[in-house]
Design goal:
Layout lengths: L8 E5 L5 E5 L6 H7 L3 E5 L2 E6 L4 H15 L6 E3 L7 H4 L5 E6 L2 E6 L2 H9 L3 E2 L5 E3 L6 H17 L4 E4 L24 H8 L1
Parallel strand pairs: 1-5, 6-10
Antiparallel strand pairs: 1-2, 2-4, 3-4, 6-7, 7-9, 8-9
Protein backbone atom coordinates (compact mmCIF):
# COMPACT_ATOMS: atom_id res chain seq x y z
CA UNK A 1 0.00 0.00 0.00
CA UNK A 2 0.98 3.63 -0.36
CA UNK A 3 0.20 6.70 1.73
CA UNK A 4 -2.74 7.35 -0.60
CA UNK A 5 -4.45 4.04 0.23
CA UNK A 6 -5.20 4.07 3.98
CA UNK A 7 -8.37 6.21 3.94
CA UNK A 8 -11.67 6.14 2.10
CA UNK A 9 -10.78 9.43 0.40
CA UNK A 10 -7.30 10.91 -0.04
CA UNK A 11 -6.76 14.46 -1.33
CA UNK A 12 -3.21 15.35 -2.29
CA UNK A 13 -1.15 17.46 -4.64
CA UNK A 14 1.90 17.00 -6.79
CA UNK A 15 4.93 19.27 -6.63
CA UNK A 16 3.99 20.75 -10.01
CA UNK A 17 0.62 21.96 -8.70
CA UNK A 18 -1.97 19.34 -9.66
CA UNK A 19 -4.62 18.55 -7.04
CA UNK A 20 -5.85 14.97 -7.00
CA UNK A 21 -8.50 12.95 -5.20
CA UNK A 22 -8.41 9.17 -4.80
CA UNK A 23 -11.57 7.36 -3.68
CA UNK A 24 -10.47 4.04 -2.17
CA UNK A 25 -13.86 2.46 -1.58
CA UNK A 26 -17.15 2.70 -3.44
CA UNK A 27 -19.02 5.86 -2.43
CA UNK A 28 -22.37 6.51 -4.01
CA UNK A 29 -22.26 9.46 -6.42
CA UNK A 30 -18.57 10.21 -5.67
CA UNK A 31 -17.76 10.65 -9.35
CA UNK A 32 -20.71 13.01 -9.84
CA UNK A 33 -19.75 15.08 -6.77
CA UNK A 34 -16.13 15.39 -7.86
CA UNK A 35 -16.83 16.21 -11.49
CA UNK A 36 -19.52 18.64 -10.37
CA UNK A 37 -16.87 20.43 -8.31
CA UNK A 38 -14.66 20.75 -11.41
CA UNK A 39 -12.44 17.68 -11.16
CA UNK A 40 -11.88 15.50 -14.23
CA UNK A 41 -11.58 11.72 -14.05
CA UNK A 42 -8.44 10.02 -15.43
CA UNK A 43 -7.38 6.39 -15.33
CA UNK A 44 -3.92 5.95 -13.83
CA UNK A 45 -2.21 2.62 -13.14
CA UNK A 46 -5.31 0.72 -12.13
CA UNK A 47 -7.18 3.50 -10.38
CA UNK A 48 -9.29 6.54 -11.15
CA UNK A 49 -7.78 9.89 -10.24
CA UNK A 50 -9.93 12.99 -10.01
CA UNK A 51 -7.77 15.94 -11.05
CA UNK A 52 -7.65 19.71 -10.91
CA UNK A 53 -4.92 21.29 -13.04
CA UNK A 54 -2.59 23.85 -11.49
CA UNK A 55 -4.62 26.99 -10.81
CA UNK A 56 -4.99 29.73 -8.27
CA UNK A 57 -5.02 28.64 -4.64
CA UNK A 58 -8.45 30.19 -4.21
CA UNK A 59 -9.98 28.05 -6.99
CA UNK A 60 -8.41 24.79 -5.76
CA UNK A 61 -9.39 25.61 -2.16
CA UNK A 62 -13.01 26.22 -3.15
CA UNK A 63 -13.38 23.26 -5.53
CA UNK A 64 -11.77 20.77 -3.13
CA UNK A 65 -13.93 22.13 -0.31
CA UNK A 66 -17.12 21.58 -2.30
CA UNK A 67 -16.03 18.02 -3.17
CA UNK A 68 -14.95 17.18 0.40
CA UNK A 69 -18.20 18.52 1.83
CA UNK A 70 -20.22 16.26 -0.46
CA UNK A 71 -18.05 13.21 0.22
CA UNK A 72 -18.21 13.69 4.00
CA UNK A 73 -21.94 13.04 3.84
CA UNK A 74 -20.89 9.43 3.08
CA UNK A 75 -17.63 9.01 5.01
CA UNK A 76 -15.61 10.85 7.62
CA UNK A 77 -12.52 8.84 6.67
CA UNK A 78 -11.18 11.64 4.46
CA UNK A 79 -7.64 13.04 4.52
CA UNK A 80 -6.55 16.26 2.80
CA UNK A 81 -2.79 16.71 2.62
CA UNK A 82 -2.78 18.81 -0.56
CA UNK A 83 -0.81 22.03 -0.29
CA UNK A 84 -2.86 23.40 -3.20
CA UNK A 85 -6.12 23.31 -1.24
CA UNK A 86 -4.91 25.44 1.66
CA UNK A 87 -6.56 28.78 2.16
CA UNK A 88 -5.07 31.21 -0.36
CA UNK A 89 -3.82 33.56 2.38
CA UNK A 90 -1.54 30.73 3.58
CA UNK A 91 -0.09 29.87 0.17
CA UNK A 92 2.16 32.91 -0.33
CA UNK A 93 3.93 33.00 3.03
CA UNK A 94 6.81 30.77 4.04
CA UNK A 95 5.63 27.87 6.22
CA UNK A 96 6.72 27.56 9.85
CA UNK A 97 6.79 23.78 9.35
CA UNK A 98 7.39 21.58 6.32
CA UNK A 99 6.63 17.86 6.47
CA UNK A 100 8.02 15.52 3.79
CA UNK A 101 7.22 11.94 2.79
CA UNK A 102 10.20 10.38 1.01
CA UNK A 103 11.11 6.73 0.37
CA UNK A 104 9.19 5.36 3.35
CA UNK A 105 10.35 8.03 5.81
CA UNK A 106 8.67 11.14 7.15
CA UNK A 107 10.79 14.13 8.08
CA UNK A 108 9.94 17.68 9.06
CA UNK A 109 11.58 21.09 9.37
CA UNK A 110 10.37 23.47 12.05
CA UNK A 111 11.37 27.11 11.61
CA UNK A 112 10.00 28.14 15.01
CA UNK A 113 10.16 26.63 18.49
CA UNK A 114 6.36 26.47 18.68
CA UNK A 115 6.21 24.46 15.44
CA UNK A 116 8.88 22.10 16.81
CA UNK A 117 6.90 21.68 20.04
CA UNK A 118 3.78 20.70 18.10
CA UNK A 119 5.69 18.20 15.95
CA UNK A 120 7.17 16.61 19.08
CA UNK A 121 3.67 16.05 20.49
CA UNK A 122 2.89 13.77 17.54
CA UNK A 123 5.96 11.56 17.66
CA UNK A 124 8.47 13.60 15.64
CA UNK A 125 11.90 13.50 17.28
CA UNK A 126 14.70 16.02 16.76
CA UNK A 127 17.63 14.91 14.62
CA UNK A 128 21.24 16.09 14.87
CA UNK A 129 20.50 18.79 12.32
CA UNK A 130 19.07 21.99 13.72
CA UNK A 131 15.30 22.36 13.22
CA UNK A 132 15.00 18.89 11.63
CA UNK A 133 12.66 16.17 12.94
CA UNK A 134 11.74 12.65 11.93
CA UNK A 135 9.07 10.08 12.72
CA UNK A 136 10.34 6.76 14.12
CA UNK A 137 11.39 4.31 11.41
CA UNK A 138 9.30 1.44 12.86
CA UNK A 139 6.03 3.36 12.60
CA UNK A 140 3.54 1.82 10.18
CA UNK A 141 2.67 3.82 7.10
CA UNK A 142 -0.96 4.24 8.25
CA UNK A 143 0.23 5.52 11.65
CA UNK A 144 2.68 7.90 9.96
CA UNK A 145 -0.13 9.41 7.87
CA UNK A 146 -2.27 9.79 11.03
CA UNK A 147 0.59 11.51 12.86
CA UNK A 148 1.07 13.94 9.96
CA UNK A 149 -2.66 14.72 9.75
CA UNK A 150 -2.85 15.37 13.50
CA UNK A 151 0.30 17.49 13.56
CA UNK A 152 -0.82 19.53 10.56
CA UNK A 153 -4.25 20.16 12.09
CA UNK A 154 -2.68 21.21 15.39
CA UNK A 155 -0.21 23.54 13.65
CA UNK A 156 -3.08 25.21 11.76
CA UNK A 157 -5.09 25.57 14.96
CA UNK A 158 -2.21 27.68 16.33
CA UNK A 159 -2.17 29.81 13.20
CA UNK A 160 1.13 28.27 12.06
CA UNK A 161 1.58 27.71 8.34
CA UNK A 162 2.54 24.19 7.31
CA UNK A 163 3.36 22.57 4.00
CA UNK A 164 3.16 18.84 3.35
CA UNK A 165 5.29 17.44 0.52
CA UNK A 166 3.97 14.03 -0.52
CA UNK A 167 7.08 13.17 -2.54
CA UNK A 168 5.15 13.14 -5.83
CA UNK A 169 6.77 15.55 -8.32
CA UNK A 170 4.25 14.90 -11.13
CA UNK A 171 1.03 12.96 -11.77
CA UNK A 172 3.09 10.01 -13.01
CA UNK A 173 4.52 9.66 -9.48
CA UNK A 174 1.15 8.99 -7.87
CA UNK A 175 1.30 5.36 -6.70
CA UNK A 176 -0.62 2.72 -8.63
CA UNK A 177 -3.68 1.04 -7.16
CA UNK A 178 -2.77 -1.52 -4.51
CA UNK A 179 -2.58 -5.03 -5.86
CA UNK A 180 -5.51 -7.14 -4.85
CA UNK A 181 -4.90 -10.73 -3.80
CA UNK A 182 -6.42 -13.15 -6.29
CA UNK A 183 -9.84 -14.21 -5.11
CA UNK A 184 -10.07 -17.83 -4.07
CA UNK A 185 -12.79 -19.82 -5.79
CA UNK A 186 -15.90 -20.04 -3.64
CA UNK A 187 -16.51 -23.48 -2.16
CA UNK A 188 -19.51 -25.23 -3.68
CA UNK A 189 -22.80 -24.70 -1.89
CA UNK A 190 -24.25 -27.77 -0.09
CA UNK A 191 -26.83 -28.14 -2.89
CA UNK A 192 -24.11 -28.18 -5.57
CA UNK A 193 -22.07 -30.68 -3.57
CA UNK A 194 -25.08 -33.02 -3.24
CA UNK A 195 -25.83 -32.79 -6.98
CA UNK A 196 -22.24 -33.75 -7.81
CA UNK A 197 -22.46 -36.82 -5.57
CA UNK A 198 -25.52 -38.18 -7.39
Amino acid sequence: MAITDHHDVFIGSTDDGWTFVIVNRPIRNAARMLTGAGFTAHEHQGRTLYLLPPQTGEDAHERAGVAAYGLMAHTMDLVDLARTTRHPSANGAEPEATIRFHDGTVTATACTDSAGDVLAQYGFTPTKSSQEYTLPAGLSEADAVKAVVRAETHLYSYGLRVRVDLGMPTLQDIPPAPSRPPSAPAPPSPDQAQRRRR
